[in-house]
From TrEMBL:
<feature type="domain" description="Glucose-6-phosphate dehydrogenase NAD-binding">
    <location>
        <begin position="25"/>
        <end position="208"/>
    </location>
</feature>
<feature type="binding site">
    <location>
        <position position="256"/>
    </location>
    <ligand>
        <name>substrate</name>
    </ligand>
</feature>
<dbReference type="InterPro" id="IPR022675">
    <property type="entry name" value="G6P_DH_C"/>
</dbReference>
<feature type="binding site">
    <location>
        <position position="62"/>
    </location>
    <ligand>
        <name>NADP(+)</name>
    </ligand>
</feature>
<dbReference type="InterPro" id="IPR022674">
    <property type="entry name" value="G6P_DH_NAD-bd"/>
</dbReference>
<feature type="binding site">
    <location>
        <position position="237"/>
    </location>
    <ligand>
        <name>substrate</name>
    </ligand>
</feature>
<dbReference type="GO" id="GO:0004345">
    <property type="term" value="F:glucose-6-phosphate dehydrogenase activity"/>
</dbReference>
<feature type="compositionally biased region" description="Basic and acidic residues">
    <location>
        <begin position="496"/>
        <end position="507"/>
    </location>
</feature>
<keyword id="KW-0560">Oxidoreductase</keyword>
<dbReference type="InterPro" id="IPR036291">
    <property type="entry name" value="NAD(P)-bd_dom_sf"/>
</dbReference>
<comment type="function">
    <text>Catalyzes the oxidation of glucose 6-phosphate to 6-phosphogluconolactone.</text>
</comment>
<feature type="binding site">
    <location>
        <position position="203"/>
    </location>
    <ligand>
        <name>substrate</name>
    </ligand>
</feature>
<feature type="domain" description="Glucose-6-phosphate dehydrogenase C-terminal">
    <location>
        <begin position="210"/>
        <end position="505"/>
    </location>
</feature>
<keyword id="KW-0119">Carbohydrate metabolism</keyword>
<feature type="binding site">
    <location>
        <position position="169"/>
    </location>
    <ligand>
        <name>NADP(+)</name>
    </ligand>
</feature>
<feature type="binding site">
    <location>
        <position position="359"/>
    </location>
    <ligand>
        <name>substrate</name>
    </ligand>
</feature>
<dbReference type="GO" id="GO:0009051">
    <property type="term" value="P:pentose-phosphate shunt, oxidative branch"/>
</dbReference>
Length: 507
């Protein structure tokens, strides 16, 4: 259907969704996330024609910048990090709505200036009072920013306009702090005004989990304890902590990514079919999975944490975590974490879900591997199947996005020798469109008020409930095992699976 077709259905999800009159205010605009992800995403959306003509971008920070300096920063960030080519005409239009407000978070005058700026943009750019406030700030700054928005009337939705709060992780560092944080936010913003970012949910390959499972008939019948042996979810990074010592130390790998990204991937992999794809129905099913998670009885045996030591990465010598700048040399922070959990319901009872993540591992790769039981009976000699592994469906989240199905096949020319082979779907080969960055999708959804891809309060709190006992156990017992940079983590993690008669995949 073309867009001029009178029969065009506005709910048709194939059609481009374009944001209505609106603007985005970024707190923490001088930070890394803003420069590498948020500003480029705004430009990419504009370049794809998905932002309204008068779209406005307001930066709020301490720096002594004029509007022009801010625009220059955005320009440089876009040139360096945007996904789509730079087009002068798009830039010229975008720059019309760029403003900078200088101030600290406790500065009442600055928030008054922010209010005036928004008022001015409503007139000059036709933003209609619709603004999203993106808090790309440390959690310690959440309460003051939220309170300032309230105090200066910036959270009020008047005469048909909307105001939304976008909150970056971490949402606390345990259940208690998350509850406090949620209470602070929800004292000012109604639940449907709050968008919590888990950028993994904005990735195309992650959204495709739902398409794979629920748009097809061939996978779902075997997606359960009768056929699945176990599930492995891996998020491996080859980078270290870079310049993020201040954020990372004391937080660690499990809080940084298992609490959010990995548990969300697990929820999407394990959940029942939602009655529809609206936000409530999806959240209800994910919540059920997170609520059904059972931790292992022996946390000492079935969880492992590690810390990278010096080693070699990509042909270069890499320093250990304790030698990184800004890290306490006695730090017990985990840069690797592996945990085993079960989802205690009829579909999954007895099927372990192994979740692991780490920095400075052998390769950057995120995947979900659903590993199947062996065939219950084999008419072949044992020599014929010696090299046959377990069947698996592997969702390759990144890089090399796609899906692999692994199964056994007869080696040609032998009387009967069966070996593992792969059937691959690769995005690059099947689609000409390239995938948008997660932040493009998520910022657009915020402007459209579409909350499908944003975790709810309950999901966040349940995820902390899962992690808290593990962190407490780690706190009381020993310290992380060291692993050389560039390897696949501590040997203890291999032993953890060996005890179950299994092994980690080497993606
Ligand atoms: C972030 C974590 O949420 O995800 C980082 O805080 C991590 O530590 C990053 O590096 C990885 O994101 P991606 O999209 O590159 O896999």
């Amino acid at each position: 259907m073309s867009s001029s077709n009178p029969l065009r259905d506005p709910a048709d999800r194939r059609l481009p969704r374009i944001a209505g009159p609106s603007g985005l205010v970024i707190f923490g605009v001088t930070g890394d996330l803003s420069r590498k992800k948020l500003m480029p995403a705004v430009y990419d959306l504009a370049n794809r024609g998905l932002l309204p003509p008068g779209f406005s971008l307001v930066g709020f920070a301490r720096r002594e910048w004029a509007n022009e300096d801010f625009a220059q920063e955005v320009h440089d960030a876009v040139k360096e990090h945007a996904r789509t080519p730079f087009r002068e005409e798009v830039w010229q239009q975008l720059i019309q709505g760029m403003r900078f407000v200088q101030g600290t978070f406790d500065d009442d005058d600055a928030f008054e200036r922010l209010r005036d700026t928004i008022g001015e943009l409503d007139k000059a750019q036709g933003t209609g009072g619709n603004f999203a406030f993106y808090l790309s700030v440390p959690p310690s700054a959440f309460p003051v920013v939220i309170q300032q928005l309230k105090k200066h009337g910036l959270a009020d939705q008047t005469s048909g306009s909307w105001r939304r709060a976008v909150i970056e992780k971490p949402f606390g560092h345990d259940l208690k702090s998350a509850e406090e944080l949620n209470a602070t936010v929800e004292e000012v913003f109604a639940p449907d005004q709050v968008f919590r970012i888990d950028h993994y949910l904005g990735k195309e390959t992650v959204q495709n989990i739902l398409a794979l499972r629920f748009a097809n008939q061939m996978f779902e019948p075997i997606w359960n304890r009768s056929y699945v042996d176990h599930v492995q979810i891996t998020m491996a990074e080859d980078i270290g902590i870079g310049g993020r010592a201040g954020y990372y130390d004391g937080i660690g790998a499990a809080r940084d990514v298992i609490q959010n990204h990995l548990l969300q991937l697990m929820a999407l992999t394990a959940m029942e079919e939602p009655s529809s794809f609206d936000a409530d129905a999806l959240a209800a099913e994910k919540t059920k999975v997170l609520g059904a998670v059972k931790l292992p009885r022996d946390l000492g045996a079935d969880t492992v944490r590690g810390q990278y030591a010096e080693g070699w990465q990509g042909g270069e010598k890499a320093v250990g975590y304790l030698q990184e700048e800004g890290i306490d040399p006695k730090s017990k922070t985990d840069t690797y974490a592996a945990i085993k959990v079960e989802v205690d319901n009829r579909r999954w009872a007895g099927v372990p879900f192994y979740l692991r993540t780490g920095k400075r591992l052998g390769r950057r790769v995120t995947e979900i591997a659903v590993v199947f039981q062996r065939a219950p009976h084999s008419p072949f000699d044992h020599t014929a199947t010696e090299e046959l592994g377990q069947n698996a469906i592997v969702i390759r989240v990144q890089p090399d996005e796609g899906i692999t199905v692994r199964f056994g096949s007869k080696v040609p020319g032998t009387s009967m020798e069966i070996r593992d082979v792969s059937m691959d779907f690769a995005y690059g080969e099947s689609f000409t469109e390239s995938s948008p960055e997660a932040y493009e999708r998520l910022i657009l959804d915020v402007l459209l008020g579409d909350s499908n891809l944003f975790p709810r309060t309950e999901e966040v709190e349940l995820s902390w409930k899962i992690l808290d006992p593990i962190e407490e156990y780690w706190d009381k017992h020993g310290k992380p095992a060291q692993y050389p940079s560039g390897t696949w983590g501590p040997v203890e993690a291999d032993e953890m699976l060996e005890r179950d008669g299994r092994s980690w995949r080497r993606p």
